[in-house]
Structure formats: C-alpha cells, structure tokens
Amino acid sequence: SAMAAQMTDAHRRFLQVLMSHGIMEGSEARKLHQRSCEIHKVYYAHDKLDHFISTINSHLQPLFMQIRKGMSEGDGRAHYALVNLAETEITKMASDYAENELELFRKTMDLIMLSENGFASSTDILNLADQLKTKKMKKKEAEQVLKVFVEDKWLSENNGEYTLHTRCIIEMEQYILNNYQDVARKCNICHSLAIQSQVCESCGTGMHLPCVKKYFRAQTEPRCPQCNDFWTLDVP
Asked: Domain holding 95: CATH number?
C-alpha cells in the first residue's frame, strides 16, 4: 500500500483531546473532527470521520495504541476510545491501583459477568471487601474505591447497581472473551461483546438491549434471530 496518509495538526489535536477524555460519544467526536479541521485549516468532510481516525491509527500502530469504536450498552450510541493494545489486560490498571483494589475490581467483574443482566449490586460488591485475599478492606474504603473506578471509567453505576463502563468493554473485550469463555457472549446482532443483554430462553442467544429494540422494531412478532422461537422477554 502507499505511504500512510499524513498526520496533520488537525489529527494531532483530535488525538490529544480524545486522550484527555479517554472516551468520547460519537456526536462529540464528530464535533471535535470538524473543529480540529477548521482550526488547522485542513479539508473537512463530515462523512469522513472513520477515515480521519484510520489515518491517526496508522500512525499509532508502532506505539501499540488504537482508537476503537464501540457502543454504549445503555442507549446503543457509538463511542470512540483510545485503547492500549500492548496491555489491554488488567495489567494496564496495575500501575494505577493497589493490589487489593485490583482484586476488588476483578471480583466485581466476576459478579457482573456471572449475573443474569450484566449488573452487580453495591451490597454484593461491598460484601466481598472483607474477603479479599490480598488485604481486606473496610466498607467505607471499598465505597471510595468503587467511586474511583467510576470516575476512571472502568465501572458505571446506576441506583447502586454497577456494570462495566463502555470504555472498559471496548478496552478489555479480548481479555473478557479469553477469561470468561463460558459466560462471555457476543451480541447476535452487532457481534461485539454484550454484558447487559437479553438471552433467548430456548437457545441462549444473547443480544444487547439497544440491538433487541432495533431488531424487533421491524418484526411483527418477536422471534429469536437464531432459533426462531418466540422471544419471551419484554422487548425494551
């Protein structure tokens, strides 16, 4: 192939801003794309965001970094996250957190992955805090650590229920698929990892809630895309 397209100051600005956020919603990324091109007087085409990003990615390759697109499991919106390919494992977190904090995160991830709906309650997580092998935590301390995981976009929280943050899913998809082979599911519709999902009661096929909603919008009666049995769950 020809030389990778040139990185311009517009590409550099885009990357810098994304780096400082860690993750960005699609509409924000599109605005940033436009603004970056306008500020640096680089040709701007509104439908070329993915092309613009692939130019950045070709220059990030030697650094084992990549901007990846994923979706929010809550509302199905596109997101862009900067991912470290050299250490997408939990090792990336090891430099930021104490050993017992990491253990709490791993155990929280276990709860989320083994749950029916992709959530773990704060009660269940806090009950683990005084069973940690590395160093037990008091509840107050564990609550503080959970807060930090939310701020750092590893977890997200809703009414005392925790799930994996979109950024965490984009970043750790491979890790999760490798480490939770029995329970990790790919969505039957969009084929990316589905944590919060509905699962067919007949054949076990899983789908993200936003994908379920989109898929069944076009169907007269909800049937599983895989086994064609009636979809018994409430369509969101």
From this structure: 1.10.10.10
